[in-house]
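Record type: monomer structure entry
Structure origin: computed from sequence
Chain ID: A
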Amino acid sequence: MNQFGEIACSALSNGHVADIKMVEQLVAGIEAKLYGDRGYISQELKIRLKDQGIDLITYHRKNMQAIQFCASDEYHLRQRNKIETLFSLLKGQYNLVTSKARSLHGFLSGIYASLCAYQLTHQNKPTIQIKESSA
């Protein structure tokens, strides 16, 4: 999700594939900061993304040393609830997971119809104000 509440990129995978394994595919060709939850903590992933021009920023786990963030990074990490709001909207209002498709084509059509309906019709998209860091 970008700062305007629009879906920037999407990918489908099996249910047993961890989100962390799909990150590189989702951000290919993008240079930006990527804010993730604690499930995305991985030194190897952080290095690979840094090579692509992407800064991965996550909170630390309880058993890890605390990390000092600049004010803008702290703000953006706290905005992750907007992404959860987007997931709730897609599932509830746009029927993303309630489809009873009879074929793979029908299944994929339902998913993309839900995503398109959100992009085209949802007026109050959860937006994130961009805060520039002074560093």
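Annotation 1: The mean pLDDT is 81.
Annotation 2: The chain has five helices and two strands.
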